[in-house]
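Hi all, long-time lurker, first post. I run a small reading group and we've been trying to get comfortable going from sequence to structure in the token notation. Rather than ask abstract questions, I figured I'd post a concrete chain and ask someone more experienced to write out its structure so we can walk through it together at our next meeting. Sequence below, copied exactly:
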Amino acid sequence: MTNLEQTLFNLEKSLEYKYKDNILNHIWTIISKNTSFVGTVNKDSFKIWKYNGLYAFFHPVIIGKVIKKGKDEKLSITTKYNSFGKLVMVLLAIAYLYGIFTAIEYRQSFSGNRYLWYIDWLHIISISIFPTIMTPIFRMLYKIGKKEDTQQLMDQFRVYSNSTNQDYF
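-- Answer (accepted) --
Happy to help. Here is the structure in token form:
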């Protein structure tokens, strides 16, 4: 067993719960507020995530794969949005579009009244402000989670590989 395989084995042992990467498990992670890493670890890859109150719905899923080139082994780490976070963003986009279409429908039913027309445009503008502000906030929360969780994972790998003084990244 190589050092990196041993480190992945130690990572798997440190997981409190072993969950597959699906929407129900991400919802359960949020409901249970489990702040330790959960997920799955295989011989040469892993998918893990954890809850944090700051970026609860938008916690990143950290994906690691072992890349072997001859005797050298490196660990490639990427992240992605969790499936529940994607669902929340889609539902917010649908609610936004529903608000726009409702405002347009409302305007068409009272097209003769000029006062209602101005109220309608105020409605559309206020609905437009919400996704304009919230989308960057959601992205910022994801990036904060990505940075914090990846750093914590790399620190954990360094602890596991401390005896060999080997860096996997």
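A couple of things your group might point at:
Residues 3-83+147-160 form one domain.
The two ends are 19 Å apart (CA to CA).
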